[in-house]
Amino acid sequence: MKSIVSVLVAFLLIGALGIVGCAKKVEAPIADDGGVAPTGRLKIGVSMPTRSLQRWNQDGANLKASFEAAGYEVDLQYAGDNDVSAQISHIQNMISGGCGALVIAAVDDNSLTEVLKGAAEANISVIAYDRLIKNSDAVAYYATFDNEEIGRAQATFIKDALKLDAAVAGKDSFTIELFAGDLADSNADFFFQGAMDVLQPYLDKGTLKVLSGQTTREQCAIPNWNTGESQKRMEGLISSNGYGPEETRLDAVLSANDSLANGITNALVDAGYTADDFPLVTGQDCDTASVQNMLKGLQSMSVFKDTRKLASRAVLMVSSIVAGEEPEINAPDLYDNGQGLRVLTYQEDSRVVVKDDIQTVLVDSGYYQPADIGL
Ligand code: BGC
Question: Is 185 in the pocket of ligand 1 (CB under 6 A)?
Fold first, then answer.
């Protein structure tokens, strides 16, 4: 009897995920009490962009643990160090290897159109994880944070810390340099747009000045969000504009995330800045290195995006699809896939973290153990 029920459940799951092409791979699970478990032991392909940033190691580990805890099997792959062709070949293998759903943080938001045609043909559900995937109608759902709002929060931090609203146009001015993420990452665009919405009026009035003159996203983008590249660009800006504690004043650096901020901080420390006179430096992710820099006064803020919540959101989305239900979404109209198709989105909350929040937000919540951040 049990095996008949198992077979029935397997068929229901196959129908719900529409994975007829991979039917032989789907097994109905047996719960500990010998009954049929509520979710299928479906294989979920999880494709992460790189192992070289803390963020994605955490996301991969959280996704694997959360999917496994919900009864799924997981094929977790990292695309080397942001290697587009490795990501495409992993996804190909996931499709042919019987995955029932794919959760993908794309290296390049525009490079998965071809490979995802295979997912669409096999009716495999695809969830864009953190980063929007463009130009693929295989991608129906997106689990992320409010990325434009994160850019706005970084810029608002600078605006408030420098008291730009109290500055007298034409008299008071502050210097800033801008750092954006990889051009192939759609999030980098949202962060930059959000930040520039806030900063542009002050740039227009001359209250904020970018001495390098580099203000477009293309001029400010750091390939692969790489810390070393970011450090090199900051070193170049320091030498070409004469920034330094005793030289030309630098009030702030808008950095889209922590991996960029770490390179910027290294360059500023090498140029002689100390915690006493450190320019404002923003960030995002609350990586351990940045949290330690905040504790030392060498980075001003970061944005905390709880990757545990994002992983759970991806699991909830898949589980809803398995149950034949529409996943919960809270941003139905915000994103389209570049071809006019809406991508149904759930945005998790994020929050600004400064030095004084580290204990309550990051340690008391169990996100970090004190030893992780040198406490
Ligand atoms: C993520 C950021 C991350 C960056 C670099 C972005 O897509 O949203 O959290 O810092 O990629 O990995």
Answer: yes
